[in-house]
Amino acid sequence: MAAPAAPTTPRTIRVAEPSLTSLEEQFLLDAYRSTFVSGSLGPHLSRFEQTFSSRVAGCAHGVAVCNGTVAIHLLLKSLDVQPGEEVLLPDFNYVANAAATVEAGAVPVLVDCDAWGRIDPEAVRAAAKPGVTRFLWVVHLYGLPCDMDALQAVADDVGLTILEDCAEAHGALYKGKTLGSFGLASTYSFFANKIITTGEGGMLCTNDADLAQRARHLSRHAMSPTQRFFHTEVGYNYRLSNLLCAIGCAQVERFDEIVAGRRALIEFYRSELDGIVAGVHINPQVSDDTVLSPWLAYVLLPDRLVPRRDDMLAALRSEFHVDTRPFFYPMHTMPPYAACETATREGRGKRNAGAVRISGRGFNIPTSSDMSLEDRTRVVEAVAEVLRRYAVER
Ligand SMILES: *Cc1c(COP(=O)(O)O)cnc(C)c1O
Questions:
Q1: What residues contact residue 278 under an 8 Å CB cut-off, 6+ apart?
Q2: CA dist 117 → 96, 147, 170, 173, 266 (Å)
Q3: Cβ contacts of residue 313 below 8 Å, gap of 6+?
Q4: How far is Cα 104 from Cα 96, in angstroms, rounded to an integer?
Q5: What is the CA(96)–ligand 1 centre distance, in A?
Q6: Is the CB of 164 within 6 Å of ligand 1?
Q7: pLDDT of the residue at 251
Q8: Distance between CA atoms of residues 168 and 202, nearest Å
Q9: Contact yes or no for 122/345 (Cβ under 8 A)
Q10: Given the DSSP bridges, would you call strands 107-111 and 86-90 parallel, antiparallel or unpaired?
């Protein structure tokens, strides 16, 4: 008698998978065989800096560094942020901007967001101290472009310089212009789950030649260009290996293809899941003036389902083997940043209700440019089933 078939557990569909082909492999091998594994002579370093900054960031200059967090730190240091100086940044955000600001000796002021999670220009206005606050981090979170016209108008009124964090915004446009080219400078990450990856890596991009030069200088221990091993100030070693730059060169070559694959997937999710339960949105477009970046796809829940979000994620994981991730926590809810000042339209020291609300409403679902039709369908069916289950229950 045949033994009953052992129950098979389906493979877990991961929330992010890089798109790596024989092109990345070839470039990596080229770099390896060249023996230029690191150092400024590596041919892939300058090529990666040039092609990424011009094609993806819309900027004339790029300085490659070893991750996105140090790109943020390097930019603040290159701009001579002062000890104790306040820097405005979003409360609803990944932790990097707040951590790097603290590391640079400055003090984060946590600005509230609108109902979609974009930093609120009027809260920026209320948070700014003209003549005192100099820098505003605009972070295009989850690929959703912030309202650049409104932010620039406020920045002009109150004397702020905009710095863009585009770690989650490769390929996004605002009124036809590439995000990353609006502020004085922009920063990128090439971590494994970003749109293009080098394993670990980052870049500071800018149209300001002097700023790029200063950042490059500081990123290499501030060594005098004319006197070897003579250091003009305290610098950092933030170099990115030429091996990783080689992978980056291949990813830039394939950028349009990767973006198109991810866009098609998010479009599919939207067509299958948007509104499947009243009030559910998939990567909402929000404004006709923008093209979203296809970073991780996300589900936004109506407020009534927020208390069940974590149960939904647990069910997706254990029953359907679909990996997800919850939205970021507001910075002010976490120990290192609890003492930072918050800012809403009403001014400083008010509760950032926008950040608290959006943080509970969202979760990311698996996104990669090469996902098979079978996996896409599995994700859609699982998410639909779980959304319906919890919507009915209530
Ligand atoms: C990933 C990310 C960073 C930091 O990048 P690392 O390369 O992981 O240091 C910064 N900001 C945002 C919004 C990110 O998503």
A1: 302, 391
A2: 17, 11, 18, 17, 19
A3: 324, 326, 363
A4: 12
A5: 6
A6: no
A7: 98
A8: 12
A9: yes
A10: parallel
Query: Quick one: pLDDT at residue 39?
Result: 78
Among the atoms of ligand 1, which is closest to the Cα of residue 194? 1
| CA trace torsion 376, 381, 386, 389 (10° rounding) | 160
- Please tell me the distance from the alpha carbon of residue 329 to that of residue 259, in angstroms, as a whole number: 27
Secondary structure (3-state) at 332: helix
- 54 backbone dihedrals φ, ψ, rounded to 5°: -80, -45
Q: Ligand 1, closest atom to CA 191? A: 7
Residues of the chain with pLDDT under 50: none
Q: Which atom of ligand 1 is nearest to the CA of 201?
A: 7
Distance between CA 46 and CA 297 in Å, rounded? 32
CA-CA distance, 70 to 237, in Å (whole number)?
Answer: 10
125, 111 Cβ separation under 8 angstroms: no
Contact criterion met (CB below 8 Å) for 332 and 393: no
Contact criterion met (CB below 8 Å) for 53 and 188: no
Look up residue 66 and give its DSSP letter: S
Query: What is the Cα–Cα distance from 285 to 173, expressed in whole angstroms?
Result: 12
Place of tokens 């004397």: 159
d(CA 56, CA 268): 24
Q: Which two tokens stand for residue 124?
A: 């920026």
